[in-house]
Amino acid sequence: MSIRRIDVARGLADTGSMKAKDQYLQIRVSPAEKTAIQTAAARAGLDMSGWVLGKLLPPEPRTFQALVADLAGNPARRRYALAELNDFLAGLGAAGLARAVADEPAVALEPYLANYVAAMVETAAHHADVASPRWTAAVPTLGEPMFGTTLPGLRLYLLLHSPPAFRRRNLFVDSTVGDRV
Fold first, then answer.
1. Residue 57 has what DSSP assignment?
2. Are strands 4-10 and 171-172 parallel, antiparallel or unpaired?
């Protein structure tokens, strides 16, 4: 049986966009394995390199890290970045969520944002019926309560109706992962 070589170009993620593919990874497969890879890639609408890389380096962790980096990097976009993170987490199934949030954020977040992200991840994990990643427990809870509104009349409502993961972190909000206001 002869073994054929396929070259898989390797690109590096750059906050969601791909840099130039300038590295190669060579693997040896049998003709039957190559045909199986070609068939699976075609079914997925990808080339062989894209399909193999998608299996080895799933996009969810890169997307999560890019969204958190965006949240940390631009205070003017904070609300939009939180909404994008919300949509991303809400759209994942159990396996995708577990892959996406397995590693703690690579960027340093101010305590408020670190707690907000941890609460979002814990809530999404609860909804998906998967365990929260360990890194969320290591995020120190806020010392003072933070409310999602400046209106004093709504604070009692938020104290009573905030999702549990947010309340545990001294965050009082009206909606949670998957919700829209």
1. S
2. unpaired
Please give the torsion angle defined by the CA atoms of residues 171, 177, 178 and 181, in that order, rounded to the nearest 10 degrees.
20
- The region that residue 67 occupies, defined by phi over 0 for left and psi between -120 and 50 for alpha, beta otherwise, is alpha
> Dihedral (C-alpha) 117, 118, 121, 122: value to the nearest 10 degrees?
-150
Closest CA to 123 of 151, 156, 152, 82: 82
Whether 11 has a pLDDT exceeding 70, the answer reads no
Structure token pair of residue 107: 């960027």
Contact 174, 158 (CB under 8 A): yes
Per the CB < 8 A criterion, the answer to whether 97 and 130 are in contact is yes
β-pair partners for 28: 5
Tokens of 124: 């999404």
Single pTM value for the model: 0.70
